[in-house]
């Protein structure tokens, strides 16, 4: 693979407790271009730097873009560990089909990622709770104002050493159950990891933040009745010993952390249901003292306990605003497998 050396390397962060999330980027990135009639070409590793685009570039106007998010870790032996990367590129191709973006060769981009990670190994933080966040993306780069699928694309992978996703770390989050705004509809793009889904979600997120909430809990678009997911996380509830997560209906993002949790819970004898769950069922369970735990799952925060939900002006506290047992077990198990502290019982980690 072609490698273009940077003239100067950046200063690496010295204090891993101050990384934040997605603010610092490494020296190099992987890129690859696409042209109709030619296919994907020019796969290479080059310095991460600003690149100029014409202001009539398709993605700026019509949001034809998709992305992924995954993490790499490094153990004491200096071994690089990547969590389920094949799953991310498989999902990226499903998102690509939905958004009329040409599919990528999953093997080729995995190789590109692994080579990039080997070059950037010294950027992988090792303190508890930190990781190297990996952001693959594809955007339409041809210059045209007509509303059509792009004819040229850029695939890129950029890397960012990160700490906790939330400034308050693993403290239970406060969710506002959103009963007006909609994130996604069945038949829309909810199950694709496309950039426009996030633009759509910002307004509700901002209003919730102003009222002191961490995230919005989305309900289904049609009836505003069934729980869908949280900002960038899938949602789980533990009710009366049953672990419940909303089934994938087409408007919910099929999270890889969600899938990993389901597999872990099932392998360890928990009763797990993927089904429709209404917000009324959650609230009734809380009133009856049967809502044992609630948590979100996603690559960035891994597992995020929910301590409180507000719905139609009323507050519902979950588990005394404390992290529940299953929530903690999942967090410890997944982060343990990721970092190598625990055995990789499901063969999820690619070691470099
Ligand atoms: C990425 C994402 C998730 C979590 O998916 P993971 O694969 O677990 O990181 C959940 N919801 C939305 C809307 C997302 O974009």
UniProtKB/TrEMBL annotation:
Keyword Metal-binding: no
Annotated GO biological process: isoleucine biosynthetic process; L-leucine biosynthetic process; L-valine biosynthetic process
Catalytic activity: L-valine + 2-oxoglutarate = 3-methyl-2-oxobutanoate + L-glutamate; L-leucine + 2-oxoglutarate = 4-methyl-2-oxopentanoate + L-glutamate; L-isoleucine + 2-oxoglutarate = (S)-3-methyl-2-oxopentanoate + L-glutamate
A family per Pfam: Aminotran_4
Cofactor: pyridoxal 5'-phosphate
Keyword Ion transport: no
Family the UniProt entry places it in: Belongs to the class-IV pyridoxal-phosphate-dependent aminotransferase family.
Name of protein: Branched-chain-amino-acid aminotransferase
Organism: Candidatus Borkfalkia ceftriaxoniphila
